[in-house]
Structure formats: structure tokens, C-alpha cells
Specification:
The structure is a homodimer of 335-residue chains. In chain A, helix 6 crosses helix 7. Helices cover 50% and strands 19% of the residues of chain A. Chain A has 14 helices and eleven strands. The longest helix of chain A has 22 residues. Chains A and B meet through helix 1, helix 2, helix 5, helix 6 and helix 7 of A and helix 1, helix 2, helix 6, helix 7 and helix 8 of B. Chain A binds a DNA duplex (30 and 30 nucleotides) through helix 4.
Chain lengths: 335, 335
DNA sequence: GGCAATTACGTTAGTGCTAACGCAATTGCC
DNA sequence: GGCAATTGCGTTAGCACTAACGTAATTGCC
């Protein structure tokens, strides 16, 4: 499922899809049981069943919809003969909704169906259903206490103020090198033995043979990393590039790449290549923009199982950073 | 929140409400950041961003919508200048969707906003957000493996086949007496000391003083209970009535009530009363239909804190069981 | 009493989506 | 090659809902 890979960003779409699924299922059940109601009517009907003689707005606030929606729904229910409208004697503006005998009878005979729905949902969803319900509760509450928009805008402001820095390796950052790389490796592939070894001791396997490691730091937090491996005299490999999922899109990857390329050039290297996988589309696009050129076949003697892409750096195919000067200005090279 | 009390029955409505909430929040953020896109466009745009030059139906299946929806959305995106349509040279039916430069630029500069949304959602929802995402994943998967409608219809058939029996107390059922009563007490009020004592040893506190206890059994499972307490010579109290949440609406409560009333009459009792709480609307309605009449004030010297309703049984105010003869026929008195 | 603010409700226009249909192109099969 | 089935897409009608507005009645305040 593609949407699942988007995490929080596509929550709305996924929730809606699931919601429609439940509605459709309930409708199908009602139809096959011969019940004369539709799934969308349920909250209103159930509320009237439990409360009888309530106003439109009372129902509306109870079920969390606008009074218009309830009013229109009430029209339908009246047409279906399940509900009747009554004028409130004391307050002429109000119109009271009451179940008709037919309506009450229909709902009463619907009891077994509702029981079946509850139990059927439990049977299909199992423990996950309860977890979902609990999470819904918690999220509804959390959103009331901490409005989403305010939180997002606060984060946005914080991001705008924070500086994106590229820094060199320090032993204190060793764990970050492992964490950031393990994250995408485990997600898309799996940790190969060679990964575990190299990631676990970057000083020995990257720096000592003549390589370099860079980190991206945003507002004090390490959000990405990238390594330049010294493969043989004059030949370097770009590898171990990883940016924290939550911070993708800020240009940290491209910035790390540029830092590694600059280091390659500072050392007057002769060849810079990388190996990757065709599934990592956004990464490949970034490599191309930074100046790497796709090669027709994989590199001979690759030491990664997952490598099916082989790219080589060519100075003149380089394109400018898409986020432009504004982002570049905030970059500072330290360490 | 009323909908939350409906459990699985109102899942669709709650999911939709939450979905709309997220959409609205995202729209507000985009607006206040000056981004020229709408939240509903996101899945399509993001997919095009990662894949470029894809067909309508590929996008549709990826994001789980119909091709019509994607087609109409594509029209909007074309009007907004973010996307262009291209004919596929090899297959004349296809029209390929590609981001325009403007579109790609807009999405690239949207990176920080997406990061802010992710982090803002995390800040607002905290751990609950992750739980919700995980539960969503699990439920989507579960629904594919075990279709909801099939499960519900299976449960419905099982309910129709199962027999609803009312049985008398046996020591082996002691735990059920506690469980069924503790459930609603803890949900609506809290367990008072007197409850714990009586529920823990019904033999001593209900049967020995001259009372009776009934259970409702459906297909071998104990789903409800009800007690008739002997208060003083000729005076009985109806109490400790509880039906498992998942089995409400099957008429078990009314059946239990009738059994208790029948027992009261068999013993030629003089007065039968009950104490309850005005929050338990459906229960009160059931009591009224069974023949209990609301009294103007609470019973003097009540031993429950939660009691604010006092009802007395009157033979002639009794009304027939709403589920009718069909349900009654399946009832059998045993034990 | 008089007048503004509020409350309750209905109506209308518009949005986002689906189902259903139709057309064009491709594929499969004899 | 010829013809049916399938695939890909666009269009239309319709549904559920909201936002925005208008109307009627009530409440609050001087």
C-alpha cells in the first residue's frame, strides 16, 4: 500500500478510505438482512432511539455534525416514515424529532443485526479493532487539547529558524551513523553482515582507510549522514547516505552529497561512484541532479546484494540545488 | 462524545470525522504557508513526484481510489498548472500524467511544510498517533484477509440459530454474576463497597435471604444476569441487572426482567421496586415497558449513592415485549 | 418597551467522491 | 484475419456533507 508509506502525511486519505469501507459493509449487511435503513442514518437513529424527542441541534452536536446535515437527514428519515417532526410548544423555532412507531419497531428488530456487527467487527479485526478504537479515542482527545494546526505551524516556524549545518565525523556521533543507516536499510531491504560491520565501527572501516563521514545537523539534532569511502588510490565510493524519515524534503540529502563531492574534489580524486537500488527513486533523482550519471550495468564485483544501480560522478552533468539560494545561504560548514 | 459510546457501530462516522479534521488542518497549513495546493491533491501529487509520467489508473490503484476520481483531480491539477497530460505514443488509450516544472518546483519547496506536518502531528498526537497508524495498518490488512461483511453475516446467522435461555443460579456461574454487573457499574459509575460485597458472594447475600438470580444464556454463553432481592416480608427489589455490551438489543434484558417478575408473582410478593439512575435511559425504558412505574421521589433510605430513580411494579401498566412472538418462542425456561 | 445579540432551523450552492455508462484501443483466441 | 473480451479513460448523474446565508423566535439589557 503506497499510502501507508507516507505515514502521517496521508492519514486523512486512509481514514476516509477505511470509513467508506465500514459504511459500505454496514449497508451491505442491512440490505441482506432486509433492514430498511442505511448506514449513514445510524448515529441519528440510534440517538433518537435512546433519547426520543430531541431537537435538530442537540442531535447535531451529539454526533458531531452540522445542524444542516442532521436537518437534511431528518427529511430523509421522515420520507422513509421512520421519524416525524413536531413543533415545540414552548419554543416556536424548535422542531422536535421523534421516532415513529414504525421507526422504533424497525430499530428494535435491528438489535440482533447490531450485535452481529459488533461481533463481526471483532471477528474480522480482532485485537486490532480494539486498538483502533482506543487510538481513536486518544487522538480525538489529543487533538482537542493540542490543536493540530498550531503544532504544525510551530514546527514550521522552528524549522525556518533552525540552521542546517553539515559537520564532519566525531566519535560522539558514531551511534547516529548506525541509527540513520539502519533505518532505511531495515525498511527497504535488510541489514547485510557487511553493513553491520562497517556501521558499527566507522572509524576503522571508513576513516582509517582514507574516507570521510559527514552529518547534517538541524537545530542541534543530527538528521542525516553520508560517507565517502576510499576504495583504491584516487577512487572513491559514495555510500551510507541516510536522512531521518521525519526530516526528508529539507534538502539535507543534497547538502550532504555536495559536501562529500567537495571533499572528493579537495582530495583530487579521479573517480567517484555509487551503488544503489532502483527502488529508491527519490534518492536516484537526487544523485542525478548532483552530477551522478547512470551506468548501463552494475559495477563488476559489487559487494552488496541489493545493488542494481551503478552511477558515476561527472562534473559537467551537475545541476543547481532545487531549493535554491535561500536554503544554501543558511548552510554552514563546520567541524 | 456520544459516538465513542457506540463502539464499533459508529466506527465509520468517527473515522470520517477524524479524516475531515486532518484534511482541514492540512488545508489551513498550506494556506498559511502560501502553498498553492490543497490537501486532497497530496496523494496524487506526491505519487507523481516520486514516479513521474504515470497513467491515471496506476495512480488510482496506488492511492486506492477510482480512476474517475483521479481523472477529475487531474483536470484540476492541469487547470492549476501543476500537471500536464501527455498521450502515450505506444498505447493510444493512455494519457500520461507528468508534473510540470511549476508543479515540481512547488512540491520541492513544500518539503519543509511536509516535515512540519509530520512533526506537528507527532507533537499533537504523541504516542497515540503512532498507535493509530499501526492500528490502521493492521486493520487494513485484517479486512483484506477476513472480509467484514462475511464475518458479520456469519455472526448474524449464528445468533439466529442460537437459543436464548433464561436459567436460574448455579454456583458455577458466580463469576459471571460479578463480571456482568461490574462491567456496567465501572463504566457508568464506580463499584461501591456494598456492590463488591454482594456481587462477591451472591449465595450469602441474595439467595440465602430469600432472593433469586437469573442468567441469560445464548448458545452456551452467559450474556446477562438479573437478581430479585428479598427486602422484607412480601417486599422484593429488582437489582443487579446487567447484559454484556456485545449482546445488547437481543431482548435478553427484557427476558430476564420477565423471569424475575414471574418469580416475584410465584412467591405472591406484595411489592416489587427497583432503584436506578436517570442516565441509564434504555434500561429505564425497558423497566417501564415491563410494568415498572416511575415514582416522584427516590426511595427513602436508599443504600446506593447512584440511585436517583425509584420505580415500582404495577401489573396493569405492563406492555408486550417489543421483539414480539418470534423472539419469545425461542425462549425456554430451564434450571 | 425597544433593540441588539443569540439561538434554532431551513435552504442553497458547491465540493469530493462513486457508480454507471460509453468510447477507443489493445489483447486473446480461433 | 476477424471478433469478442479486456483495458484505459472520460463523462454524467447522484450522494453526503459543509459553508454560507436567510428567517423566525427568544433572550438580555438598557
Amino acid at each position: 500500500m503506497y499510502l501507508a508509506s507516507l505515514g502521517e502525511l496521508a492519514l486523512g486519505s486512509r481514514l476516509k478510505a477505511l470509513s467508506d469501507h465500514f459504511y459500505a459493509a454496514a449497508d451491505e449487511v442491512y440490505r441482506s438482512c432486509g433492514a430498511p435503513i442505511e448506514s449513514r442514518w445510524f448515529p441519528v437513529l440510534r440517538y433518537l432511539w435512546e433519547h426520543d424527542a430531541t431537537t435538530v441541534s442537540e442531535v447535531a452536536t451529539a454526533i458531531g455534525q452540522t445542524h444542516s446535515a442532521v436537518s437534511q437527514l431528518a427529511d430523509k428519515l421522515v420520507r422513509a416514515g421512520l421519524v416525524k417532526r413536531r413543533k415545540d410548544a414552548r419554543d416556536g423555532r424548535r422542531s422536535l424529532l421523534v421516532l415513529t412507531d414504525k421507526g422504533r419497531g424497525a430499530l428494535t428488530s435491528l438489535g440482533p443485526v447490531w450485535v452481529a456487527i459488533r461481533r463481526g467487527a471483532m471477528a474480522s479485526l480482532g485485537q486490532d479493532g480494539l486498538t483502533l478504537l482506543a487510538a481513536l479515542d486518544a487522538c480525538e482527545k489529543a487533538l482537542q487539547e493540542r490543536p493540530l494546526v498550531a503544532s504544525i505551524l510551530a514546527e514550521h516556524a522552528a524549522l525556518g529558524a533552525a540552521e542546517l549545518e553539515i559537520i564532519s565525523y566525531e566519535p560522539a556521533l558514531k551511534e547516529h551513523f548506525y541509527r540513520l543507516n539502519a533505518a532505511w536499510l531495515e525498511r527497504y531491504f535488510r541489514l547485510e553482515d557487511i553493513d553491520r560491520v562497517v556501521l558499527g565501527d566507522p572509524g576503522r572501516y571508513v576513516l582509517k582507510p582514507g574516507g570521510a563521514i559527514f552529518f547534517a545537523r538541524l537545530g542541534g539534532e543530527i538528521i542525516g549522514t553520508c560517507a565517502l569511502l576510499h576504495e583504491s588510490p584516487g577512487v572513491y565510493e559514495l555510500s551510507k547516505m541516510g536522512v531521518d524519515e521525519a526530516f526528508r524534503g529539507l534538502g539535507a540529502g543534497r547538502r550532504l552529497l555536495d559536501a562529500a563531492i567537495a571533499e572528493f574534489q579537495r582530495r583530487q580524486g579521479r573517480e567517484l561512484f555509487l551503488e544503489s537500488n532502483s527502488r529508491l527513486k527519490t534518492a536516484l533523482r537526487m544523485y542525478e541532479q548532483a552530477g551522478f550519471v547512470m551506468q548501463p550495468s552494475v559495477r563488476p564485483g559489487s559487494h552488496y546484494e541489493r545493488a542494481d544501480v551503478y552511477m558515476v560522478y561527472e562534473e559537467n552533468s551537475r545541476r543547481p540545488h532545487p531549493l535554491g539560494q535561500g536554503a544554501a545561504k543558511r548552510t554552514r560548514r563546520t567541524g
